[in-house]
Amino acid sequence: MRIFSRSFITRLFAAVPFAASIGLLATTLPNAAHAKESAAVSTELSQATLITASDSTDGSAPLAVALRLRLQPGWHTYGQNPGDAGEPTAVTLTAQGALTGQTDHITWPTPRRIREASLMSYAYTGDVVLPLALSLAPSENTLTDGSRNTVLNAHATWLVCATLCVPEEATLTLTLPYGPPTPSAQSPLFEAASQATPVPSPYHATIAPNGALHLSGPDLSPVAVKKAWFMPDQSGLIDQPAEQPLTVHNGSLTLKLKRLPEFGLQQPLSGTLVLQDAAGSQHALAQKAEPTSTNPPDETLETEPETGLFKLVLFAFLGGLILNLMPCVFPILAMKALVVARLGKTERRTQTVSALCYTFGILITFLTLGGLLLGLRMAGNTAGWGFQFQSPLFVTLVTWLLFVMALNLLGVFEFLPVNTGSKNQTTPQHGHWHDILTGILAVVVATPCTAPFMGVAIAGALSGPPVIGLGIFAAMGLGLAAPYLVLTLAPGLAAHLPRPGVWMQYLRQFLAFPLLGTCVWLLWVATLEGGANVVLLLSTGLVLLAFAVWLYGVAQARLIQHGHSRGTAALHGLALLGLIAALALAPALHHLAGQAPTNATQPATLPKGVEAFTQERFESLKAQGKPVFVDMTAAWCITCLVNERVALDTASTQQAFARYGVTLLRGDWTNHDPAISAFLKAHHRDGVPLYIYNAGHGPDQILPQILTPGLVLKTITP
């Protein structure tokens, strides 16, 4: 092989270009700002810079630094294990000045496979970001003034290849001022790299003498996994370009790898396992397999049952149906039933149109939320079902809305202007928009109330093709709307409702109190998410809204008695000012909530004997052979809170945990937590609650979403 200068071709490798996931993510981000990006070292094939996630540093936390390579189209560079051809990128990073430190450890994003004839390579293309975490400490010569700087020096070497390869290198320098870290213009690149990095695998894995990589996990199934491949951390152990036949059953997965003679029978295997669902969505897991002396039986790939989609749709419908019984939603259904009872048999057409409008509001909201979740998932985001309740601002707005609804039920005002055509009219007549908005509200308040079957249905919706996913979300909507639809479309059922009377007014007022109770619960949730400052602003908004709707109600009464006048116009204006004043608090509330630490409340809220969940603690307990129970919960999840109160935090259950040596790990998803999101995603769940039990050996066991003390005791009993 001929060797030329650096500006010419020096080595020959076989490979073809491809688009790496980190390149796809990074190229969509703006390139106009270069606040903390070093001067570039450019060649004909690539451009190298050093970037940081913050514009300054004080050494209080590891500094996120990255080598950024912008490769010409058709060229690629290599990952930690380059495969059968190539060399890994290497970076030596040092810090001098006010703070010092050194590292050469790259956090590798998931590479893509390049197959060419009998060779396999693992590489990146496009805009490549390779992060490093640099721990810093004050130097001996630290100055006492505020002008001290930290100078980062990096020396990087990499190989740029297409059909031919060229070795390249660069020395890069970047200066950071001393101060509290503030996000730089390049911080989104680090977020994209983090999303492309493998997460710790939740599955127990073994590698057999015949090369069978076997995984165990209750959420593994032919529906959830359509394709899979394994990329080892080290070359020379398996035949990397060889096919990896896949076998999937409910609860297990097997990849047939081809062992090389250098791979010892008692040697473990580590690497990146990529699982792909039917929609093409990929989940990269950092997987380690322990050696076993037993070969699993040869099996063929299990095909998806024909009834799989039907079951998912059925589960979705049943989950939506049960949502009507949740304390947030039941008052809304009861209000609609009151409408049917008030109208009686003579207004059948009005009832039907009302039910259809209510159903339309529910369906359009479910489809919007489902489409948003599917879009976020396709973009690589880890958002799950109920994610909107992780925002203190959203929780506040829902609290205000439910409070206004409660005042409406108590008769303080009516949502829509009353019909003043007759002074004798006492029942406000609402239009179709009122029914649509009621359906929208029903979905909004229902999302934190995860019903049985919904976890499986939502996971199926988000793992399949978008059209099927939206169909499953529509089935949930139909389940939520079904009781009111049946009540209005079946005259025989409506005829059994009590006759209209004074009792309806009292029942209507009584339904305000479950909504007021929900407001108290949401105030608690907002406090956990945003801190004590949220209480003042949220409560001030409640007072302003109460004042506004009271004025609006007075104006409505005057309108019925005296018609339009300057007095009613003035009252309407004052009511509008009160509403605007309440809404004006939202930006300040959002800002204050953002200042609260996301995990500040978790340690204080854990009962005695319960530990905070971490993936490391979970894996450590399993490695020691100790039984562990995982409770993934959130303050805004009613089902979670009920299960904890009834089945987990009881004295009898805690005594059983202590008797059998079970460690209870609780993960709080009230605020967004990437580690918990990754754990949920790895178990093919997209919301809480999620309950996992591992006896200290074997696969994880997923429990139902509704717990009883007997079920928990039966599960943990050896």
Present the secondary structure layout.
Layout: H1 21-26, E1 41-42, E2 46-52, E3 63-71, E4 76-83, E5 90-97, E6 99-103, E7 112-116, E8 119-125, E9 127-134, E10 137-138, E11 149-161, E12 165-177, H2 187-195, E13 199-200, E14 204-207, E15 212-216, E16 227-232, E17 246-249, E18 252-256, E19 269-276, E20 282-291, H3 308-323, H4 330-343, H5 348-378, H6 392-409, H7 432-446, H8 454-463, H9 466-489, H10 491-494, H11 502-510, H12 512-530, H13 533-562, H14 566-595, H15 602-605, E21 610-612, H16 615-623, E22 628-633, H17 638-648, H18 651-659, E23 663-668, H19 674-682, E24 690-694, E25 701-702, H20 709-716
Parallel strand pairs: 13-20, 14-20, 21-23, 22-23
Antiparallel strand pairs: 1-2, 2-3, 3-9, 4-8, 5-6, 5-11, 6-10, 7-8, 11-12, 14-15, 15-18, 16-19, 17-18, 19-20, 22-24, 24-25
Helix pairs in contact: 3-8, 3-9, 4-9, 5-7, 5-9, 6-12, 6-13, 6-14, 8-9, 12-13, 13-14, 18-20
Task: Describe the protein's architecture and organization.
The chain has 718 residues and is of the alpha+beta class. Helices cover 40% and strands 21% of the residues. The chain contains 20 helices and 25 strands. The strands form five sheets. Strands 13, 14, 15, 16, 17, 18, 19 and 20 form an eight-stranded mixed sheet that branches. Strand 17 (246-249) and strand 18 (252-256) form a beta hairpin. Helix 5 crosses helix 7 and helix 18 (651-659) packs parallel to helix 20. The longest helix is centred in the middle third of the chain and has 31 residues, at 348-378. It is globular and about 90 Å long.
